Amino acid sequence: MTRDERGYAPIREYAAIGDGRTVALVATDGSIDWLPLPNLDSPSVFAAILDADRGGRFSLEPDTEYTASRRYLPETNLLETTFTTSDGEVRVVDGLLFDGRGLAPLRELVRVVEGVRGTVPIRWSVEPRFGYGSARTAVGARDGFVVASAGSDALAVRSFEAGEPTIDRDRVHGRFETGAGSTSVIVLSATRGEPLVVPDRVETLTRLDETRDGWRRWVDGLTYDGPFRDAVLRSGLALKLLVFAPSGAIAGAATTSLPEEIGGERNWDYRYSWVRDAAFTLGAFLTLGYPQEARAYFWWLMSASQITKPRLQVLYRLDGDPRADERTLDLEGYRGSRPVRAGNAAADQTQLDIYGSLLECAWLYANEGNRVDRDIAARLAGIADLVAEIWSNPDSGIWEVRSAPRHFTQSKMMCWLALDRAVSLAGASHIPADHVARWARERDAVRDFVEERCWSERLQSYVRSADSEDLDASLLLASLLGYAEPSGARMAGTLDALDRQLRDGPFVKRYSAEDGLEGGEGAFLACSFWFADALARADRLDDAVQMLRQLVEIANDVGLYAEEADPADGAFLGNVPQALPHLALIGAASSIREAERRRR
Amino acid sequence: MSISGALAGGLLGTFVLTTVLRMASELGLTRVDLPFLLGTAVTENRTRAKALGYVAHFGFGLLFALGYYLVFRMIGSSGWLLGATFGLVHGLFAGTALVNILLPLVHPRMGAPWTDARRTPLVERPSFLMLNYGASTPVVSMIAHVVYGAIVGGVTSMAG
After folding, report:
1. Are A103 and B111 inside 8 Å of each other by CB?
2. Mean pLDDT score, A338-362
3. Which helix (H) or strand (E) holds A61?
4. Spatial contact of A521 and A266, defined as CB atoms under 8 Å apart
5. pLDDT tens, position by position, A187-234
6. Which residue of B has its CA nearest to A102?
7. Does residue A36 have a cis peptide bond before it, meaning omega lies within 30 degrees of 0?
8. Number of domains in chain A
């Protein structure tokens, strides 16, 4: 792997490890360049991915020429990197550990270095920079370990058979040689607001075994047995990394401000949970065979939205807090892509599509045999009332454009979905039916609006917004979420039009018009999966399989996807790993499975 | 001046002391967590440790209030100011001897200068004035204890 002259690795080169509370990104060269602590949405202690000089990192690599290959240990989120040199080979297993028996650190990151053959010199360096690199970090030696601290955050670095740790101002580093059968261990124990817990080697390695077993037990629950099973399994594991276990919320992605265009301003903090993703999330967990996760997510969603009821906010913090104040961080940005943001101002936008997502989510939840209790039922009915009232307003749309609000077609389609699902929920006695006649009337009015003003005779396609001639890949969701008949004439025409204007092989761009921001962006990978999904639903099975096969090959070496990819060279752009492409992959594979069943 | 007054003051004082320390922690001033330190002395289960630690912490708060009461009785005086002075001494004692020396003696999961190779400490030691938990810890701890003492002294005298 080659870093550029500033020290940035390609986004494609990052693998993710996590423990259900936070996620670290590990580059192919063994450098951990991203780690927020103690939670995924906390400030980072390692952020070299956003500022190679000042962000902080934990590097570990052979002190000589080498090649590297990687994989996840089967059915886990533990990463194994194999470094091969002219004199030997060494395997490094990286993991963020679950709580096990005994007193465990608040967060624990372990790197186990196993000598496979020959001797390999290894150098390592921990450069902690709390508070996105802005907090003054003190590093000092204690009894047998090194502590880095800033305010109420602290990190202990403890090494076993990994050379003598040396403190050099604000970093600690070491060097050692591996031999065949040797095992060295470096452990980071982190805390916030309480004394550090610093475990010994045996306890840490025991917890590593327990973590591996824990992941495998989770995978044992996977019931999906259809096409592309390996990719679906890896996507499931990637999603599980993004589920914030303390609340059940799922983060949009593990990072902030990885750019949609190198050097551009489209750099957003995705460490929030988007209501937009609700239906996909619930659907994916049900497809995979994890009703517990689906249930936990629905509960979190209803709890988070309690404060803002009946209006929904576009996104919520992982703990359910509606505040997401956006600020700019004093970091260089990935390859100079500024600004680097923490927080997300999209929280304050109006997006009508989220109501459809939530009511679809509730419909899926109820159809699984879950009881919708009286409070939630009343709130869902209140949301349907609200949609009946506001569907005719303009909004910012699913892509959170920062240009003036308009009548986005996909938003209207989702309003139709919201009202349709409310009618169905009322019909099944899940929610009060007092206003069902109004919901049905407004639902039909929405459809009339879409069919009359959001359809272009010239393009023979639905269009991005009312009375426009622009296209938008989010129109694919009309097929996926049930607004339009997937093999009907209008969806077929829309698929053809999107194919002509927005698709380039397996890559699909989001839209063909302005969005209020400077510069452009890559192809949005979720849209590619939605395209394959729509093809499958339209019974164009061979096309769908071929497209999904191409998309599976676009994943990085460990099966992860970023938000976007550059159609020119396949380079990843945007935050990584992102939930939406993985959710969409699961959906597309599932639709292909259904299409295969229909064909038989 | 009465025992029940001292106990009421101890309960209220510990409540405020705990709140001050927790707020300081949230503000990034310190990592001291007395319930965590006390609880992990008896269990490795983090949740149980916190719960037990809070119970023990309030128990100690009441015990110290009784100690204050005995001294108030001996000198025949109590009040906010006298209590605050006691709190200052109490805070100094906590930072220099109680948490720094006595707690590691009895805490099976905390290392001490005399810990040998047979033991594997888990919990970070506080050090002199609990400075290991952050440079502002002595000030925060002192303020919290002075407030505790003032409340115990004041409520004790008010209780007639």
Report:
1. no
2. 91
3. strand A57-62
4. yes
5. 999 999 889 999 999 999 999 999 999 999 999 999 999 999 999 999
6. B44
7. no
8. 2
CA-based nearest residue to A289, from A361, A368, A222, A366: A222
Are A306 and A189 members of one domain?
Answer: no
Q: How far apart are CA A507 and CA A18, in angstroms?
A: 29
Residue A455, amino acid? W
Lowest mean pLDDT among A146-155, A299-308, A492-501: A299-308
pLDDT value for A38: 93
Q: Tell me the pTM.
A: 0.90
B33–A195 C-beta distance less than 8 A:
yes
Tokens of A3: 């870093």
Whole-angstrom Cα distance, residue A113 to residue A82?
A: 10
Q: What is the DSSP letter of A393?
A: S
Last residue of a domain, one of A155, A186, A219: A219
Domain that residue A44 falls in: 11-219
On whether the CB atoms of residues A24 and A109 are closer than 8 A, the answer is: yes
Q: Does A140 touch chain B (CB under 8 A)?
A: no
Distance CA A574, CA A561 (A): 10
**CB contact, 8 Å: A5 with chain B?**
no
Cβ proximity of B3 and B10 under 8 Å: no
Answer for the pair A94, A143: CB distance below 8 angstroms, yes or no. no
**Nearest CB to A194 within list B29, B33, B44:** B33
Residues A457 and A473 in one domain: yes
Could you say which DSSP state residue A540 is in? Answer: -
DSSP state of A43: P
Distance (Å, rounded) from C-alpha A560 to C-alpha A525? 11
CB contact at 8 A, A45 and A130: yes
Gap between the Cα atoms of A559 and A230, Å rounded: 9
A99 and B CB contact within 8 Å: yes
Do residue A193 and residue B109 have CB atoms under 8 angstroms apart? no
For residue range B93-116, list pLDDT tens digits in order: 998 888 888 888 888 888 766 665
Angle between helices B46-75 and B80-93 (to 10 degrees): 130
Subunit contact A193:B122, Cβ cutoff 8 A: no
pLDDT tens string A221-254: 999 999 999 999 999 999 999 999 988 899 999 9
In the structure encoding, which two tokens stand for residue A5, read together? 């002259």
ipTM of the complex: 0.75
DSSP conformation class of A49: T
Reply yes or no on whether the pLDDT at A346 is more than 90: no
Give domain limits for chain B: 3-109+121-158
Give the range among A141-150, A165-174, A340-349 with minimum mean pLDDT: A340-349
In-domain check, residue A164? yes
> In CATH, what number is assigned to the domain containing residue A122?
2.70.98.10
CA distance A187 to A147: 12
Tokens coding A458: 């010239």
Does any domain span residue A1?
no
Option in A103, A195, A196 nearest B44 (CB):
A103
Q: Are residues A458 and A569 in the same domain?
A: yes
Q: What is the pLDDT of residue A477?
A: 97
CA–CA distance, B133 with B24 (Å, rounded to integer): 12
Q: Are residues A215 and A230 part of one domain? A: no
Q: How far is B47 from chain A (nearest CA, A)?
A: 10
Q: What tokens were used for A389? A: 């009232």
> What are the tokens at A417?
């979905």
Q: Per residue in B77-91, is it b (16+ CB within 10 Å) or e — as a string?
A: ebbbebbbebbbebb
Nearest alpha-carbon partner for A474 in A484, A489, A459, A487: A484
Pairing of strands A79-84, A315-316: unpaired
Both tokens assigned to A358: 């939530």
- What single-letter amino acid sits at A373? D
The span from the CA of A464 to the CA of A511, in Å, is 8
Task: Answer whether residue A41 is part of any domain.
Answer: yes
Q: Is the pLDDT of residue A101 over 80?
A: no
